């Protein structure tokens, strides 16, 4: 039986060639491990935040129970705390913001995606998105210096004169209040709703528009019957993302909402939001129960924002996937 002898030079060269390959596999494994660690870190950070908030809220949960969500008392001196005024102020100001921002945002999105001349689409879209880059404290300063006096001297007296008999508009024109906070928030969430809605509308296949035009539809009919129905879920997701931004906004709201823990039917009255009370009172909270109550408010705000964000992202991504699949 014959054997094949491999020359010494050939064997040495094969060993040298295999060395980089082994080194490359080791580098790939290390690179994969590092990226996996980064991905797990992204998941671990919110989980650790939730665990810490739950731990910090334990004292408040044990002392107040579910009554914490329905009580209107916020008395640090007697260590009696209820979150209802802050939940109410957050929801009312955010609802006002959505009612004001959605028509403007959808109009801008329709204009930018279907009606605007091509030469101004990018500049106008950039200007709209630029609003999102303005710091919230700048919005708050503008609200205190410009918006609040304008509302107090012009808008609120006019509304009170004709609709003051309604509980929704009762009270003197203070300027500061939930209505001012809602207007500020509306300006701040317009870029979010506009950008996401425009992306969803642009994902609608061009064939849908051409088919509608071929049937004699006008520009408005094309948008109404061909574009908006297909993009409806994505637009709802964009609105929820805007609502999520409004719920968590802190500085601008703090500067104009009035920071009074009360539940009032009038939107012209001062209020308080969950984010604002945390920012204003957490550092100076003197007792463990006080800190625990603020932590429970933070946990509630975190949970609502997380659920809304996940739901909105799912709506937007599913809508874009369906539309791209039809293209």
Question: In words, what does this structure look like?
Answer:
With 327 residues, this protein is mainly alpha-helical. It has a single domain (67-326), classed as Orthogonal Bundle (MetI-like fold), CATH 1.10.3720. The protein has a two-stranded antiparallel sheet with strand order 1-2. It has eleven helices and two strands, in the order ααββααααααααα. It is globular. The protein has helices at residues 8-64, 67-70, 84-115, 118-133, 136-163, 178-202, 206-214, 219-248, 251-256, 274-281, 288-326, and strands at residues 74-75, 80-81.
Question: What is the structure about, briefly put?
Answer:
Part of the binding-protein-dependent transport system for phosphate; probably responsible for the translocation of the substrate across the membrane. It contains eleven helices and two strands, in the order ααββααααααααα.
What's the helical proportion of residues?
Answer: over 70%
CATH superfamily: MetI-like
Mean pLDDT equals 87
CATH architecture: Orthogonal Bundle
Distance between the termini: 67 Å
Low-confidence stretches: none
- Class by alpha and beta content: mainly alpha
The backbone outline, from C-alpha atoms, is: globular
Strand order of the largest sheet: 1-2
């Amino acid at each position: 039986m014959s054997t094949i002898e491999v020359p010494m030079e050939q064997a040495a060269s094969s060993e040298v060639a295999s060395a980089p390959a082994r080194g490359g596999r080791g580098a790939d494994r290390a690179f994969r491990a590092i990226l996996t660690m980064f991905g797990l870190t992204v998941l671990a950070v919110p989980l650790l935040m939730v665990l810490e908030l739950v731990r910090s809220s334990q004292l408040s949960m044990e002392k107040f129970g579910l009554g914490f969500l329905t009580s209107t008392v916020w008395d640090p001196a007697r260590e009696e705390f209820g979150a209802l005024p802050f939940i109410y102020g957050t929801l009312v100001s955010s609802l006002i913001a959505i009612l004001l921002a959605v028509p403007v945002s959808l109009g801008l999105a329709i204009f930018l995606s279907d009606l605007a001349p091509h030469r101004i689409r990018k500049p106008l879209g950039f200007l709209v998105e630029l609003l999102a880059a303005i710091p919230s404290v700048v919005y708050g300063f503008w609200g205190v210096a410009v918006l609040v006096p304008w509302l107090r001297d012009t808008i609120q007296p006019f509304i009170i004169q004709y609709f003051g008999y309604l509980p929704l508009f009762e009270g003197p024109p203070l300027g500061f209040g939930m209505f001012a906070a809602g207007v500020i928030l509306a300006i701040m969430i317009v870029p979010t709703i506009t950008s996401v809605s425009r992306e969803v509308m642009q994902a609608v296949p061009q064939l849908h528009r051409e088919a509608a035009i071929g049937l004699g539809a006008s520009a408005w009919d094309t948008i109404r019957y061909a574009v908006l129905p297909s993009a409806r879920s994505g637009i709802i997701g964009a609105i929820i993302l805007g609502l999520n931004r409004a719920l968590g906004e802190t500085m601008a709201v703090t500067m104009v909402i009035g920071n009074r823990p009360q539940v009032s039917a009038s939107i012209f009255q001062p209020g308080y939001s969950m984010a604002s009370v945390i920012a204003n009172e957490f550092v100076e909270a003197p007792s463990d129960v006080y800190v625990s109550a603020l932590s429970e408010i933070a946990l509630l705000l975190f949970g609502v924002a997380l659920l809304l964000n996940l739901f909105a992202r799912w709506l937007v991504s599913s809508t874009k996937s369906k539309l791209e699949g039809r293209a």
